[in-house]
# Entry
Amino acid sequence: MGKTSRSGRITPLVAGLIVVILVLAALLGYVATTSPAASTVTVTREVGGATVVRTVTAVQTQLVTQVVTVTAAPSAIEYTIGFAMAVSGPYAVDGPVRRDGGVLAIEHINAYLQSIGSPVRFKFVHDDTKGTAADALKVVQSMYAAGIRVIVGPFSSGEVRGVMDFANTNKVVIISPSSTSPALAADDYVFRVVPTDLFQGNVLAQLMAKEGIKKVAVIARNDDYGKGLADAFEKAFVNRFGGTVRKLLYTVGQPDYASEVSQLSSIVSELGGGADTAVLIIAFEDDGLNILGHARLDRTLAGVRWFGSETLRRPAAYLPAPDGKATPEIAEFLRQVKLTGVFASPRGGPLVTKFEQDYRAKFGRDPSPYAYFTYDAVWLAAMAILYAGKYDGEAIRAALPVVAERFVGVTGYKAFDQFGDARGSDYVIWQYRQVGGKYAFADIGVWRYPAEVIELTG
# Structure
């Protein structure tokens, strides 16, 4: 208690302390109110040798503090996802179709976020990787310099190989919708939403064995994708089914493949031709069309069954006009040799129906198979960013497997294996046919994962 004066008033010292407390409370953002409280103070003094006792009633100020919380309206938050996707070179036809699957995903994600009142929105930045490793690296480096830490793409395994080291060093998350080379499986910053070609090679081998094929001549691109799938197929077909395989790897980027087709014809002849001999073609767009253009004129090659990698199921490339760029002669050749293949794409269900309807409405064409995977890759990227809670490559990399484990998209369950690649999938079995007077890729069955059972339906 502070000292009082003879008259019983509060001393200047006490008054000064009260002022200091009030000033400090104001600086701390408190709203202070006062309520009077009475107290009795007894003052004892010695006066002329006698003791005098005086009782003084003083009014003291009591501080009452109240915390005021101000809630501000949430501000907009925008995250960028890079689209490192080729739309020229070997992807001039199918690249834009795949990319647009990602564009639609951004639209769907933002519509959902708006519907729940979230302030978060996503945008994409696209750049053309041109289908080459060198150009893919330039695109990823440019996006990194712009602050982008999550990139969907590139498409091909060769491009992915070209950006892996940079992505790992700089902690940039790469989510490829279509790279499948088994050689790229590693514990790194690269994720792939499609199973590796160890699966496709095994499914093709099992399908051919079921169809009575015992000898196969493989013509494949001499790159990560072509070699990886050719090797996976050979291993399964020889070791599991006792078949014979001869491989012909061709240099990518040549203007013409007449010489390679001639070599392929010789290999088929050496294998004996006939109903138990087949050709497996592993190609992209322009190289594949050129090879088929020569093969259709070769009697030996026209007399055996043909099977194709999933890259042959590109309507914009291998159907005739107005749907694609194949000539009517090539289309008829593919029908005659019953070109058959598999594709990791479980179809059906409400998610797929909505995707296809919205894609056709927005772009005026059907999505190609890998457009479905691009759509799912963008959804996974966005959900991993939201789950991580920050736009940081290391945090998003850690979040992706957790999100994928709980995600079912238009291409099915997307759980990753220890290397960040899709664990497995059903495979649709397709065949090039004439349906309703038009050439088409018709679904004729399915390979079930993990049972490894083939069910042919047509």
Remarks:
- The chain is about 40% helix and 25% strand.
- The two ends are 99 Å apart (CA to CA).
- The chain has three domains: 12-66, 77-195+347-413, 210-343+427-456.
